[in-house]
Amino acid sequence: MAAIRLDGKACAADLEERLKQRISKCGVTPHLAVVIVGDDPASHVYVRNKVRSCERLGIKSTHIEFPSEASEEEVREAIISLNNDSSLHGILIQSPLPNHMDEESLTDLIDPSKDVDGFHPANLGRIVQGRLDGMIPCTPAGVMEMLRWADVEMSGKKAVVIGRSFNVGMPQALLLAAKGADATVTIVHSRTKDAKAECLSADIVIAAVGRPEMVMPDWVKPGAVVVDVGINRIDDETRERGWRLAGDVHPDVANIASLLSPVPGGVGPMTVAMLMANTVTSAESQHS
Ligand code: NAP
Questions:
Q1: Is 50 an annotated catalytic residue?
Q2: Three-state DSSP class for 201?
Q3: Which CATH number does 137-268 carry?
Q4: Per-residue pLDDT tens for 13-55?
Q5: In the chain, which end has fewer C-beta atoms inside a 10 angstrom radius, N or C?
Q6: How far is the centre of ligand 1, averaged over its atoms, from the C-alpha of 165 (Å)?
Q7: Pocket of ligand 1, candidates 43, 209, 278: which has the most ligand atoms within 8 Å of its Cβ, to mutate?
């Protein structure tokens, strides 16, 4: 039996409706600043999607663009001035930054209450403490929202997260294990001895590895729930543009899993929706 599609677009649309209600009661127009450095085409597409989402919801967005040869000091000064701007509720630095910039130290500079990406150590640390009312990184938060929206039972289930990055895999594992979700979590990474065996034992698999179609059908227990975070561009001569997007999960996993999120249209729209949610939360808390 084919898996049911875990439809991130539909889940994001539901979330947006709830956000519109919250914005109408917020007493202030939420305001997001997006800092982008350089001319990486994919980054500009991501920023455009975020700005469009702001427009749909009535969130004000300000775009601060630097050329790729800008100095780290210039970006640093811009962040400090955004921190001090009381009309702003969210600050996001679009990744990746040029190699001559220290992304970590620039992220550390953002006021944690405006850190809508949730990457500041103060916000990541709160997750370890089980304080889930703050700025949670958008992708793992979006996965949790999608699992709850689809009524996936997590309590006592075995979850495997493939990937341990600070922005996706690690916070994802913490969120699945947190009180309220209550899954028993295994983290698979590049040194894991037998990733396939770990996945085969899981009721829930979250693939956030960045390796196209790595999770094959024979890696998945029949009936498992599979969430594909991966976004990989692979060559495809049958397409006019010469490439296509692939997830970290092979499409034939749909014949084994009970629920599978598609790429595109799964975790991607949820990531943007959670960014909007963090911006609204920040506006609410700064104006309550
Ligand atoms: P990342 O920082 O490169 O982390 C990848 C993780 O995968 C690392 O922890 C790495 O392990 C692990 N890994 C690599 N090869 C492996 C292997 N053969 N077996 C097991 N684990 C392996 O990537 P990321 O930022 O977490 O992103 C992961 C994927 O999600 C990418 O495709 C990215 O484009 C996508 N993504 C999508 C969204 C969205 O909105 N849908 C958002 C963010 C990211 P080590 O730690 O041992 O190196």
A1: yes
A2: coil
A3: 3.40.50.720
A4: 999 999 999 999 999 999 999 999 999 988 999 999 999 999 9
A5: C
A6: 6
A7: 209
